[in-house]
Amino acid sequence: MRLTRFRAALLAFLITNYSLLIGDAHAQAPKTYSASEILLGLKKLNVLGSVLYVAAHPDDENTRLIAYLANGRLLETGYLSCTRGDGGQNLIGPELREQLGVIRTQELLAARRIDGGRQFFTRANDFGFSKTAEETFTIWDKEQVLADMVWVIRQRRPDVLITRFPPDARAGHGHHTASAMLAAEAFDAAGDPKRFPEQLKYVQPWQPKRLFWNTGSFFVKAGENMDGYLNLDAGGYNPLLGQSYGEIAARSRSQHKSQGFGSSATRGEALEYFQLVKGEKATTDLFDGVDMSWNRVPGGVAVGKLVDEVIRKYDAGNPSASVAGLLKVREMLEKLPKEAAFWDSEKQEGINELIYACLGLNLAAVAQEPTATPDGKLDIAIEALNRSSVPVKLKWLEVPAIDYNFQTVGNMAKQNIDVQLESSKPFLKKASITIPAKQSVSQPYWLRQTGTIGMYKVPEVVENFSWPEHPHKGERIERWTVLGSPENLPINQVLFTIEAAGATLYYTKPLQYKSTDPVEGEKYRPLTVVPPVAVNIGGHAYVFADNLPKTIPVTLRAGKAGVKGSVALTLPAGWKAELASIPFDLANKDAEQTVQFRVQPGPGAAEGKTELRAVATVDGQAYSRGYQVIAYNHIPTQILFPEAVAPLVKLDLKRKGQEIGYLMGAGDDVPDALRQIGYNVTLLKPEDISPDYLRRFDAVVLGIRAYNTIGQLKGLQPNLLKYVENGGNVVVQYVVSRGTVLPEIGPYPMKLSNDRVTVENAAITFLNPKQPLLNTPNKITSQDFEGWQQEQGLYYPSSWDPKYQTVISSHDPGEPAKESAILVADYGKGHYIYTGLSLFRELPAGVPGAYRLLTNMVSLGK
Is the dihedral of CA 737, 743, 747, 750 positive or negative? Predict the structure, then answer.
């Protein structure tokens, strides 16, 4: 089939450069280039080399090495993270699991925009801390993760693979070890046509030259002789960027804010060490024996000479003078034989971007609203500006709809413009478009289908098309689309067809929303396709400790104006709601209406955890997805559409006390859980931590990582201990062992560590069955530790003063017992409790035993 000019240009760009979408294409301020950055880009045209760095999680990558390879050696540099970091903790907010994975995906993309790398993923889900690769491979689908890794290698054709971790226990995490083991297997499999032959319809086998392990100080013993390792200095200074690679790396790594990895810059020599794992031996450089000049492709010698001429004649005061030379290089690339297709495509894209920069072009498509619905109208503004003396004409505008899997779902607008863009005089045009009725909502592609604990389910969509304008005319080009990509493709791209110096050029720009924040200034966010109505259930888990009804709020949010319908709850057997359904009427777009359902367990409701669902019906169509905004200043605003479900819990629960003071740490949903079981919860500020103010509370609970995030606790600790001494009860949830604001967080010494129990259903031993925490007001049994999610606990103390009593013991397979999941001490008239149990995960998930344990903790001494 023949394609529109838009589709040909867009898809040709995407099939080999989808990772470039992480930059200008996804809700970022338009990229601008300094004259020195243009020169760096020109120099990169003459480097034909590629490297892929491989590790397990966001933040595992060596940002200094990536910055050096991408900006110093000018290589195509990629980072393949096996996971999106979904199983970690969140230092900046309450988001966990899938929501945290979205945040960390965007943090990786923010990092790559700074250090110059490209980002890739596999389908592996970060299911939480794992102590061995063997355990990891029982949860990950090893063959599928390996296939994903091979796919990226075959597509990106790296000359060198580099792993962050060794393939053994030194890696410190089962995912780390697994990533290194998989990289070694992928090194061989990528070049073997018998491995994953289904990929060979779209890519060719590719054999990297060698695989290295990038070792470092935390893998090497003090005083170890490093003479056997290959080394390089990655701490150099790049005068064209005005920064050292250590300075670039610090800014890049500091984007991992949800993990608390703000970094200081390093300057001067910084040696990186490499151990050969597989492939040809290298004696002086990572790329020994790799021809990274144009000599490596047939017919490339002449191209290299022409690029040299463009570089030699480059005028930093007038970059547009290089456009003619770049167009000649582009014309020569189009004549290269099929065997040069990979580097032809890579460098074509680089040339087009350099021409854009040299002309000082600004092409933008701005949506007048941040969201739209399928079949909805949307006003847009088109901007075009030429800031050079080179004649530029805007010929055509096309605004189609490209679904997340590249399927064209409608050509919404196409217009012949044919306007000369006079230097520094902006062209502005307003238009109205219609979003296609079949357009999917903007849910991240890896969250659209239900996967497993260890793997996301990703559609392996194939797009078949031909590109008439391609130099290899008539060739059938087929590529997988989504697999490996860091995020959704832009919903709508506007194709600008321009004519510059007699040549036709195509530029695709994302349709995005621009606003001005009075503090942050100009901000961009993706245009998001939303359902006509979103359904949000208030709260996380609804807990019934008796048979009395509870009010469950359901909020309807309009994706467009004039949405009417009804909403109902789907309840499990034995439960009932006073109203079967409730009507709603939303007159305006983004309007919200909250309705209240009264729900209670009936005589047939079973003890334990189940779930309820909310479903809205509009014009006979059911909608059951919510609307969740993730907004932080360091990443573009993300909107998720989780299913409108909530845990429903019926349990036998007794409690003592009533008033709880809660000091939030890094952010969690524990206060809501306490309210669900009947407590009055007051959120405390640091200035509230005084003995006189605290005496009104039956217990004071500190949120997760409070001693890592609240600097004032260093001076307020005596006040907390005075509250305990006077008869109060303090419950401290887990604290990360590194970076506490004071050396001792309790009334008596304890040493925090990284110890944890990762098997969520690990058997529990009660060390002191008569301990009040196990008996009052609720009798705790082994059943209370059933149904836990992801992990049992983390950051257990490794040693403690004898004045602390231990309560329970458990351990992961093959490990000694860990007895410090709960430590409790009498202090004066009161009690101090430290717990590493993962209550912050279990309570929102509706785990009954977690509620009973927390109730006993806050009831202690009452």
Answer: positive
Instruction: Please state whether beta strands 50-55 and 76-81 pair in parallel, antiparallel, or not at all (unpaired).
Output: parallel
CA torsion sign for 624, 630, 635, 637 is positive
Which pTM value belongs to this model?
Answer: 0.89
Residue of 78, 91, 81 lying closest to 634 (CA atoms) = 91
Mark 770-795 as b/e (b = at least 16 C-beta within 10 Å). ebbbbebbbebeeebbebbbbbbbbb
Q: Domains of the chain, with CATH numbers? A: 48-292 (3.40.50.10320), 293-358 (no CATH), 362-442+488-527 (2.60.40.10), 533-650 (2.60.40.10), 659-859 (3.40.50.880)
DSSP conformation class of 555: E
Tokens 């090194």 belong to which residue?
187
* CA distance readout (Å), 600 to 248, 549, 571, 579, 612: 57, 4, 10, 12, 12
> Under a CB-based contact definition with an 8 Å cutoff, are residues 187 and 163 in contact?
no
Which distant-in-sequence residues (6+ apart) come within 8 Å of 515 by Cβ? 370, 522, 523, 525
Q: What is the mean pLDDT of each run of 10 residues along the chain (862 residues)?
A: 39 40 50 94 97 96 97 98 93 89 96 96 94 94 97 96 95 95 98 95 94 82 78 95 96 92 87 95 96 95 96 97 96 91 92 96 93 91 94 87 55 77 93 85 91 88 40 37 78 85 91 89 89 92 92 96 96 94 96 96 92 96 95 92 95 95 94 95 97 96 96 96 97 94 96 95 95 97 95 96 98 95 98 97 95 98 91
